[in-house]
Amino acid sequence: MVMIRPSPSSSLPALLPAVLLALLLITAGCTLPGQQKTTLNVVVAGSMIGPSTTVAAEYMALHPDIDVQIEGHGSIQAVRQVTDLHRPFDLVVVADADLVPDLMGGSTPSATSYTTFATNEMVLAFTNQSMYADQVTAENWPTLLSNPDVRIGISDPKLDASGYRALMLMMLAEGYYRDAGLFDTLAGDHFDPPVHQVRDGTNRTITLAPVPRTDGRLVVRDSSLFLLSLLEAGGIDYAFEYKSVADEHHLRSIALPAAINLGSQEALDQYSTVRVDPGVQRFSVIGAERTGTPIVYAVTVPSTAPHPADAKQFAAALINATGEGRQNWPAPLSPVEHAL
After folding, report:
1. Residues 45, 317: Cα–Cα separation, whole Å
2. What count of other Cβ atoms lies within 10 Å of the Cβ of residue 140?
3. CATH fold for domain 38-119+295-339
4. Are 101 and 304 in contact, with CB atoms under 8 Å apart?
5. Is the dihedral of CA 52, 57, 58, 62 positive or negative?
6. Dihedral sign for Cα atoms in the order 202, 168, 186, 135
7. Is the pTM of this model over 0.85?
8. Strand partners, 122
9. Where are the alpha helices (DSSP H) in 28-176?
10. Which H or E run includes 228?
11. Does position 289 have pLDDT exceeding 80, yes or no?
């Protein structure tokens, strides 16, 4: 509290106008005591926690009447906070734009539209302590990671877009590196029960068990961000991560060819030949099977958002900030609004 006391030689009535003016200047632009802030609840894909937190701080500095709360999950889990758990989020941000029409559309949609605004690519992340860290390259990583002493980490493909994209990447790598059986060596044989590709011409599909388990050679965590502490502690040697996440956390990484990194619009036809079915029956009527596509982020305001107008304003700030040349963020993409 700021106290303003009159000078002993001054009369109180003469000072009152000056005191009132000073108090008005001190409180100008601030939230008055007892004035309620609007809490904006935003759920984001794990790879957007850093960028969205940065934008939230900048936004709140310009809008002191708004309190932005950020919560991070895998992209599928982020959507389910609204569709299954019925939590009152104002904004949902996912790392796979297709999840919005697939999981929030249908006969009773959970939103009316969504906006695509950013892209990313998959990389192979590691540290100086990783096995073969001084040898691994974009050419030999399939061979080195096939060694039985190497531990590989991915996020849960049932919960996180990064997880099913890691599996897609390994499927695509078989053809690119002409290494038949690479997917089984890196991942498929390490699930319990084993997961193998079913081929239909040039298309390949894998279906996960309802409750898949893995051995110590392949490690699965709920979100790609949960792999980071494991990687940095030496619990795994390599993790398939988004480039922005690896850069943000100062990890070493191998840039992968556009034909397999899911970051190129030109490689759409190639990506679409691989599919991952999470094996979750309750998703079967709304698009359980994920098809390989270029990585595209999307933001949507749920129909149940408590503060839709404020949510749209913050969404615009987030979209605009992504295009400001910021380092270690998903790459900007011209925003496009899509109806559901």
Report:
1. 17
2. 13
3. D-Maltodextrin-Binding Protein; domain 2 (3.40.190)
4. no
5. positive
6. positive
7. yes
8. 242
9. 49-62, 75-83, 99-104, 141-145, 161-176
10. helix 226-232
11. yes
Choose among 248, 311, 307, 295: nearest CA to 92.
311
Q: Where are the domains of the chain?
A: 38-119+295-339, 122-291
Helix count and strand count (H, E) for the chain: 11, 17
Tokens of 191: 């699930």
Rounded to whole angstroms, the Cα distance separating 42 from 39 reads 10
Give the pLDDT score at 294: 98
CA-to-CA distance for 151 and 130, rounded, in angstroms?
9
Q: Quick one: tokens of 163?
A: 């997880």
Of 118, 115, 119, 120, nearest to 336 by C-alpha is 115
pLDDT in tens, 1-10: 333 333 333 3
DSSP, collapsed to helix, strand or coil, labels residue 219 as strand
Judge whether 38-119+295-339 and 122-291 match in fold: yes
| First and final C-alpha spacing in the chain | 50
Residues 183/174, Cβ–Cβ less than 8 Å:
yes
Position 2, amino acid: V
Q: What is the pLDDT of residue 35?
A: 65
Distance CA(224)–CA(71), nearest Å, equals 15
- The pLDDT of 16-31, averaged and rounded, is 37
Please say whether the beta carbons of 72 and 46 come within 8 A: yes
Q: What is the pLDDT of residues 119-162, one digit of tens each?
A: 999 999 999 999 999 999 999 999 999 999 999 999 999 999 99
Task: Out of 3.40.50.970, 3.40.190.290, 3.40.190.10, 3.40.50.880, select the CATH number for domain 122-291.
Answer: 3.40.190.10
Helix locations, 235-305, DSSP H: 243-248, 268-271
CB 158 within 8 A of CB 277: no
